[in-house]
């Protein structure tokens, strides 16, 4: 047991020995494939048997070979085999580098620089492309001040946002710094430069870090900015006001851009002296100030007139304003929080990357104030005015365009409601429900609801016509099972406004077939599950063909071959991705078709709820990510999105068959007739226990490419669609001059638990004549 004086002596002696390591921040490399290096390494381990050795080269090589072959599906044996091939006979112990960290007394076995950097930045892609990563590796960044600057420096280093990092701070770590600087108590009184350099070296020992332990002074500013090559970006996080100004004046003369982040409200200053050589320093806030006078000032009271315009006192957060009043009263200096320093450092690193890559050229002052971005909404009082949508004057239209004919039976409102409810259960593209019904003079009229039709993927209303045809079929079935005869006709001469009219009389007896189909109207729905591949009954396929083509010139073709299903899945995936990459189509999908919350779904009573898509949580997240237009634009620029196409491919491969309904002539009437056939087919398929998933996006692009008069497709997209269409026609053995009405998956699966909802009847059915309104 030591006496007090012995303890003090021991601690003093041990502390002196540790001084050898206090300024060490660069690891020592041993490449022991070289004999001389191996001898030195063995000597190190013998001299210091207490050194901890970490050999994780096998793990790193595993990551390396996976990164070199991202499309390969590895198992344990294949990984081992690939690593052996990669080593090409080399001794794994001597492969790569042994890095010795003196301040930790640890040795780590790592990949050599090129492979190390490749593996360590692999997960950056494609947020940072390989070309961008290579470009950044040639850049030099200087960081002055290592409070916020520590967070900036570490984030840049972790992302490998540069090839050299110069860091400057004269200060040592204090206990008060640990409220915002990530470090350990063992580093108190150690230079901040050393702490940051060590942290970087422990992450990436190959990244060049140059330390200016004395901070930035008038004597070394030129060296900091230019020695070993001019900086590509200066990041100012220092506290010294005069250094802020003098460093900017130097940077301006050298054409070096400057970035500064103030942790309060995440204030961002960007000064592009590289692009604007005449730009005033600090946005002109100090242009009338004599900085030589400032250097002679002693008290904060004297300095405030200089500092205030730069810090923007009026733009400080409320708590910072209150803190400013409390300085030297209840607090000794400006407060900073770890949360603000951390996200400020991350934002600064993000901006620095964009500046260096030429993706951001703006100068100015900006705020990313979390209190303004995320806050509790204030209670609002008063009633909001409800917008009332006017019902079109159908009665006048009918009187103007159709002869007055009051023959037929008068239907009660209850019976009409029953018929229209069934009709409105028909499928529609994006659940847009493009139907409006009007009853008057014993006649039911079907109109196209133009305000909800004509989207990008509803060219010339062809998708809406299919839906209207399906609604007609439901109406006829519902009438039949309710003992009504129907005399009806389509009105192609009045399209796209008026679609069809119907007159009713009593005395019908529904057939068994009609009863079977009508029984499925309520339960029929779009099922988007991947499903389970199921052997098909050939007789059932023939039955569905017969039903679809009954009394029309409709044809139904089936594809069941696996190779053909795979090709069709690829075409569907390409079409889905093309939909995302065309801005108007993307906007329609995100803003008009999709409903992203239950509340939004219930409020609109149309569109497709994300909760009804039968997606995994992962796929739901992926779909939500697709909402971002900028993300989509970048994805397109790197020819990305292959993961998005995998869902369609999986669905096609899990299908029992793919069906295609066609009609010889391309006309609105063809799509209306096709819609009638679609609904008959769908209802009978449901009766047989099958699920149907429409996949019409490719067909719509084919139509836009070949028939749409006002098509805005670029030549590049047209060529791609033509190629897809050629492959598609080859699979189905069809010509290019027919109407390709409906492409769908047929498969077995459980019913979807959540189904799309329909607008209330009072939004789709109206009554009255030109003389009388009910």
UniProtKB/TrEMBL annotation:
<dbReference type="Pfam" id="PF00899">
    <property type="entry name" value="ThiF"/>
</dbReference>
<dbReference type="InterPro" id="IPR035985">
    <property type="entry name" value="Ubiquitin-activating_enz"/>
</dbReference>
<dbReference type="GO" id="GO:0008641">
    <property type="term" value="F:ubiquitin-like modifier activating enzyme activity"/>
</dbReference>
<protein>
    <submittedName>
        <fullName>Rv1355c family protein</fullName>
    </submittedName>
</protein>
<dbReference type="InterPro" id="IPR045886">
    <property type="entry name" value="ThiF/MoeB/HesA"/>
</dbReference>
<dbReference type="GO" id="GO:0061504">
    <property type="term" value="P:cyclic threonylcarbamoyladenosine biosynthetic process"/>
</dbReference>
<dbReference type="GO" id="GO:0061503">
    <property type="term" value="F:tRNA threonylcarbamoyladenosine dehydratase"/>
</dbReference>
<dbReference type="InterPro" id="IPR000415">
    <property type="entry name" value="Nitroreductase-like"/>
</dbReference>
<dbReference type="GO" id="GO:0016491">
    <property type="term" value="F:oxidoreductase activity"/>
</dbReference>
<feature type="domain" description="THIF-type NAD/FAD binding fold">
    <location>
        <begin position="127"/>
        <end position="356"/>
    </location>
</feature>
<dbReference type="InterPro" id="IPR000594">
    <property type="entry name" value="ThiF_NAD_FAD-bd"/>
</dbReference>
């Amino acid at each position: 047991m030591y006496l007090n004086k012995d303890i003090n002596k021991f601690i003093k002696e041990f502390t002196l020995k540790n001084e050898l390591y206090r300024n060490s921040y660069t690891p020592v490399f041993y490449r022991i494939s070289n004999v001389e290096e191996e001898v030195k390494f063995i000597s190190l381990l013998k001299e210091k048997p207490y050194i901890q050795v970490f050999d994780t080269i096998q793990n790193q090589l595993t990551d390396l070979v996976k990164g070199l072959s991202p499309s390969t599906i590895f198992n344990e044996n294949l990984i081992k085999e690939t690593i052996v091939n990669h080593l090409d006979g080399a001794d794994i112990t001597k492969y790569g580098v042994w890095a010795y960290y003196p301040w930790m007394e640890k040795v780590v076995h790592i990949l050599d620089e090129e492979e190390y950097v490749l593996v360590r930045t692999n997960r950056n892609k494609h947020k940072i492309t390989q070309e961008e990563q290579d470009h950044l590796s040639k850049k030099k960044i200087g960081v002055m001040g290592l409070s916020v600057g520590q967070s900036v420096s570490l984030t840049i280093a972790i992302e490998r946002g540069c090839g050299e990092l110069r860091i400057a701070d004269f200060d040592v770590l204090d206990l008060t710094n640990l409220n915002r600087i990530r470090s350990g108590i063992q580093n108190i009184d150690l230079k901040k430069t050393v702490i940051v350099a060590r942290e970087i070296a422990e992450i990436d020992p190959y990244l060049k870090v140059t330390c200016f332990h004395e901070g930035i002074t008038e004597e070394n500013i030129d060296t900091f900015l230019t020695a070993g090559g001019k900086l590509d970006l200066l990041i100012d996080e220092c506290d010294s006001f005069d250094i802020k100004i003098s460093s900017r004046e130097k940077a301006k003369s050298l054409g070096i851009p400057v970035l500064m982040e103030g942790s309060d409200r995440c204030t961002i200053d960007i000064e592009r002296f590289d692009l604007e050589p005449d730009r005033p320093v600090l946005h002109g806030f100090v242009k009338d100030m004599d900085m030589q006078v400032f250097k002679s000032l002693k008290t904060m009271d004297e300095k405030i007139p200089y500092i205030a315009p730069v810090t923007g006192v009026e733009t400080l957060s409320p708590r910072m304003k209150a803190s400013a009043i409390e300085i030297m009263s209840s607090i000794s200096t400006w407060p900073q929080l770890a949360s603000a320093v951390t996200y400020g450092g991350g934002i600064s690193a993000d901006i620095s990357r964009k500046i260096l890559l030429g993706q951001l050229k703006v100068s100015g002052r900006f705020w990313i104030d979390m209190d303004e971005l995320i806050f509790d909404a204030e209670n609002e009082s008063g009633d909001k005015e409800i917008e009332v949508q006017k019902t079109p004057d159908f009665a006048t239209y009918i009187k103007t365009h159709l002869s007055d004919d009051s023959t037929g039976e008068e239907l009660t409102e209850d019976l009409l409601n029953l018929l229209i409810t069934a009709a409105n259960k028909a499928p529609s593209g994006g659940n847009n429900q493009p139907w409006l019904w009007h009853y008057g003079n014993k006649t039911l009229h079907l109109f196209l609801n133009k305000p909800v039709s004509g989207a990008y993927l509803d060219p010339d209303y062809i998708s809406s016509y299919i839906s209207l045809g399906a609604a007609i079929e439901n109406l006829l079935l519902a009438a039949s099972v309710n003992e009504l005869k129907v005399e009806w006709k389509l009105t192609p001469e009045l399209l796209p406004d008026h679609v069809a009219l119907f007159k009713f009389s009593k005395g019908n007896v529904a057939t068994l077939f009609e009863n079977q189909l009508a029984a499925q109207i309520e339960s029929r729905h779009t099922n988007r599950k991947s499903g389970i591949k199921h052997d098909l009954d050939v007789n059932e396929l023939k039955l569905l063909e017969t039903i679809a083509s009954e009394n029309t010139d409709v044809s139904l073709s089936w594809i069941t071959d696996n190779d053909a299903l795979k090709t069709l899945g690829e075409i569907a995936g390409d079409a889905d991705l093309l939909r995302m990459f065309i801005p108007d189509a993307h906007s329609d999908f995100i803003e008009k078709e999709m409903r992203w919350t239950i509340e939004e779904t219930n409020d609109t009573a149309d569109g497709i709820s994300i909760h009804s898509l039968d997606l995994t949580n992962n796929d739901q997240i992926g779909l939500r990510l697709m909402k971002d237009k900028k993300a989509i634009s970048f994805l397109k620029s790197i020819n990305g999105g292959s993961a998005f196409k995998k869902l369609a491919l999986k669905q096609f491969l899990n299908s029992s068959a793919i069906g295609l309904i066609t009609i010889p002539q391309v006309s609105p009437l063809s799509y209306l007739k096709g819609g009638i056939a679609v609904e008959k087919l769908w209802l009978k398929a449901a009766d047989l226990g099958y699920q149907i998933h429409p996949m019409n996006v490719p067909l719509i692009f084919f139509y836009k490419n070949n028939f749409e008069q006002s098509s805005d497709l670029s030549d590049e997209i047209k060529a791609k669609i033509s190629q897809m269409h050629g492959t598609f026609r080859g699979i189905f053995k069809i010509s290019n001059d027919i109407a390709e009405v409906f492409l769908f998956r047929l498969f077995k699966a459980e019913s979807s638990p959540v189904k799309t909802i329909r607008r209330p009847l009072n939004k789709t059915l109206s009554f009255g004549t030109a003389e009388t309104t009910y």
